[in-house]
Amino acid sequence: MSLLELKGVTKIYGKDFVANDDISLVIDAGEVYGLLGPNGAGKTTLVSQIIGLAAPTSGSLRLNGVDIVANPGYARQVCSYQPQSQVPIDGVTVRQAIEIVGRIRGGKKKYIQQRALTLINSLEIDEWANKDGATLSGGVKRLTAFCMAAVAPGDLVILDEPTNDIDPLRRKLLWLEVRRIADRGSAVLLVTHNVLEAERSVDRLAIMDRGQVLASGTSASLKGNENGYYRLELTLEPSGGCPDIPDFVSSTARTGRRIMGRLDASDISLALQWAKVQRSSGKIEEYSIGPATLEDVYIQLVGRSDVLAAPAEEVQNELRDALVK
Question: What is the DSSP-derived secondary structure letter of residue 309?
Fold first, then answer.
């Protein structure tokens, strides 16, 4: 059932800065919906309108059938929100911060106390449960903010970059909790620039850039246009320089020591031969060829290597996670 409906939402600041440009989305109860795009794509501006902190220049937003442009207070009643910035919790403990929000949202005392304890244990932050927020690391503060949004979730739970600063193990635990929230019937709107997390965690998603929705659908449907193509991924040697990329590799993008490109199936053999030569000559550290991913779709649509969403450090974290499993 449709819970949130956006039609033609446009937000213009000043005379001509278009932050959101004719955005239409439908998000259903019980699903995790990803809003994916680089910094400055207009994601947070859109969220501000959904929770009633900003009014669109034009277009409509309806939540549970209620016009939240005309009734912004309703949106704040039925939405739970974890902002991108850190939530100030100095002077209260982790447990207190979570319980205070739960009570404000109308939860009964005993239930909220138990729910807070369950979240703290599930995310393995119990050793900090009674620590003052001022003493916590960025990652633990981020997990606490997530618990504050999840302790008494509304019909729509909005998570803006929820895994920033969080270690790989607890990141996995957080995604399990996100799925549990959706399974209980809430819609979860995940705002992120991390393609790997989006592909693994969401039911449907929209890719945004420069204020517009470039594509939307399931991960599989978005990757449909990449059928027949393969990805070549290279990791450069730290001091080896960058090799000349052959013509049969298209749509290349680089972040740090990582280079990604697109291959036709007929060029796989050539690519393997070329990559072996580059590795033996000391220009690349490793290489791989595999099916297209959501990240390839993202790069094709956004078209700028400076916004490549999974930097080498995150790829290393994902590999480490796989080894731990």
Answer: S
Give the predicted TM-score (pTM) of the model: 0.83
- In the chain, where are the structural domains located? 2-217, 224-324
The domain 224-324 is classified under which CATH number: 3.50.50.60, 2.70.70.10, 3.30.70.250, 3.30.310.260?
Answer: 3.30.70.250
User: What b/e string do you get for 282-294 counting C-beta neighbours within 10 Å, with b at 16 or more?
Assistant: ebbeebeeeebbb
Residue type, 17: F
2-217 sits in which CATH class? alpha beta
d(CA 55, CA 68): 9
Tell me how far CA of residue 244 lies from CA of 94, 232, 267, in angstroms: 52, 14, 17
Any idea of the CA torsion for 266, 272, 278, 281, to the nearest 10 degrees? -140
Q: Name the token pair of 176.
A: 């399990």
Starting at the earlier edge strand, list the strands of the sheet with 212-217: 79-82, 156-160, 187-192, 32-36, 204-209, 212-217
Query: Cα-atom radius of gyration of the chain, to the nearest Å?
Result: 22
CB 173 within 8 A of CB 206: no
pLDDT in tens, 124-158: 999 999 999 999 999 999 999 999 999 999 999 99
CA 95-104-45 angle, to 5 degrees, is 95
Side chain identity at residue 116, one-letter code: A
